[in-house]
Every structure is written in C-alpha cells, then in structure tokens.
C-alpha cells in the first residue's frame, strides 16, 4: 500500500520488514508502531519464514519515539506505553531477527537494534541514548540494551547521551558487525544464509535457552539441559539432521537454492 510506513516481503524463507517513513527519520509514530507490530506477528506465525530481517529506507534507521506526537500528551497517552510489546516481540520471536542499518539509530531505535539477535551496521552509522538530554529516561529500552552492553560502557553512554560510532557499538556488544555501507547487504545475507541452515524448532529452542535465567544449582542446570538436548536428539528434526549427515545431503529444512 502506498500509504503504509512499514513494508513486508517474504522471499526464500526470509521475511524483510522495512521501515519506510524517511520524512520523520523513521520515528516510532503510532502508525509505524502498529504496522511494525502487525508484520512481526505475521512473520512469527508464517511457517515458511525462517529468518526476519529488519531494515529501513532513507538515511536513518530509526530516530526513536515520534516527539511531535508525544508533545502535549499525558503520561498515560504516550506511545512509549505500547513500545515494550514490540521489543518483546523481537526479543522472543521464534525466528532469528537480523537488524540491517545503513544509517543512525537513536533512543528507541537502539532498543530495537538491541532486541534483534544479530545486528549489522554501516561504519557510518552512529548511535546514542539521547533520552536524558530531552529530560526523559531510557527505561524501556534498557530491558533489551543492558543485556548486550558492558556495564561500564552502559553507565557512560546512558548518562551522557553522547553519540558513538559503529565500531564502538561493535566493541561494546551492541552490534555483531560493522562494515562499509556498500557491504551491509552482503553481510546480512551471510548471516541469513547461515541461519537458514538451522532447523526451525532447534533455532527457536536455542534462542529461548540463551535468554533464560539459570539456577545457581549446577546439578539442576545440567539436568535441565540434558533433558532439552535429549528431546531434540530424539525428535524429528534431530533424527532428520543425523540421517542427512550420514547420507551426506542437506536436511529437509534447508531452503532450496
């Protein structure tokens, strides 16, 4: 649709969700939030989708909340109240989510990047937790950002609001890869190609395992992990993967070239 702000396309098992609101630097307006949430839901529910790529048009990935909409609104009417659901959708998506940035991200936009499983950005991209500079707190995005960042770096960047480049973003754990702008698409494709080799249920279970809190009781942790491992070794995917390895062929879940 010509008036939509977020586009959705599926090819070869890759669902590409594109933020397309360059007039306001892909700010998280009510319409953009609604469409983004709808497309994330569609990707999660589509058995043909193996990986989700979250990208953008224009020079900015996402500038954060739409401040023009937020001006004059009461605390109960702020769009930030529905933003956690979007971050949670990305964080808990059973399909791996890859962020592809060719431009800057600010505030809520950085929260989205942190929520993704893998993030690739152009060297020219910059990042900032700019909330304190306009009198607000980076509270909601801290849920996804803090697990990614080194603590000392988080304190500095959250409190100062200083902009930092893609190389530093990679060094502190926000990004997986910083590359020249003309290499972003190839780097994203490298990751999606690798992710597509994984079995769908195994990927979902592995993602869930990575995010869960673990008991201090080492024996219980080993018992839980042994049960999880056995379930998948003996399950349909595990048996298909083992058979494919023995027969020197690709497992059935690998997309056709």
TrEMBL record:
CDD domains: crotonase-like. InterPro entries: ClpP/crotonase-like_dom_sf (IPR029045), Enoyl-CoA_hydra/iso (IPR001753), Enoyl-CoA_hydra_C (IPR014748), Enoyl-CoA_Hydratase/Isomerase (IPR051683). It comes from Lentzea rhizosphaerae. It holds the Pfam family ECH_1. Belongs to the enoyl-CoA hydratase/isomerase family. Transmembrane segments: none annotated. This is Enoyl-CoA hydratase family protein. Coiled coil: none annotated.
